[in-house]
């Protein structure tokens, strides 16, 4: 989902447009870098369309998803939703120029 919105009451409107990203990889294909490659491709695509802030929700015990979020330039916040930690970060302008 992409749109202009606040992440929370403390986040300025300049944080938008915001895109929430997610990834799912079938068990037989996990551990091959597929999620990282796909998510980074999506980040580049979103950047070329003006998205300025990214968000994802990652279960605190899921190290592989935390690694994907980190590769996308996200960092964990103190915000929890449905048992997952919200990760956010500004879209890196370098990603906008990639493929």
Protein architecture, described:
The protein is of the alpha+beta class and about 100 residues long. The protein has a domain at about 15-85: Aminopeptidase (3-Layer(aba) Sandwich). It is built from three helices and five strands, in the order ββαβαββα. Strands 1-2-3-5-4 form a five-stranded mixed sheet, covered by helices on one side. The longest helix is centred in the middle third of the chain and has 14 residues, at about 35-45. It is globular and about 35 Å long. The two termini are about 20 Å apart. About 25% of the residues are buried. Mean pLDDT is about 85; it is low at about 95-99.
- SSE topology string: EEHEHEEH
Q: The biggest beta sheet, please?
A: 5 strands, mixed
| Integer average pLDDT | 83
Distance between the termini: 21 Å
Q: What is the CATH fold-level name of the domain at 16-83?
A: Aminopeptidase
CATH level-two architecture of the domain at 16-83: 3-Layer(aba) Sandwich
Spans of at least 5 consecutive residues with low confidence: 94-99
Total count of strands: 5
Give the helix level as a range of percent: 25-40%
CATH class of the domain at 16-83: Alpha Beta
Number of helices: 3
Tell me the CATH superfamily of the domain at 16-83.
Gcn5-related N-acetyltransferase (GNAT)
Quaternary form: single chain
Using the CA coordinates, give the radius of gyration: 13 Å
């Amino acid at each position: 989902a992409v749109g202009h919105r606040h992440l929370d009451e403390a986040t300025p409107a300049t944080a938008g447009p915001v895109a929430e990203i997610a990834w799912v990889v079938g068990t037989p294909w996990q551990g091959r870098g597929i999620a990282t490659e796909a998510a980074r491709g999506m980040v580049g695509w979103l950047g070329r369309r003006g998205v300025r802030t990214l968000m994802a929700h990652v279960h605190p015990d899921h190290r592989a998803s935390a690694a994907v979020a980190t590769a996308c330039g996200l960092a964990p916040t103190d915000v929890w939703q449905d048992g997952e930690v919200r990760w956010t970060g500004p879209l890196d302008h370098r990603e906008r120029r990639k493929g």
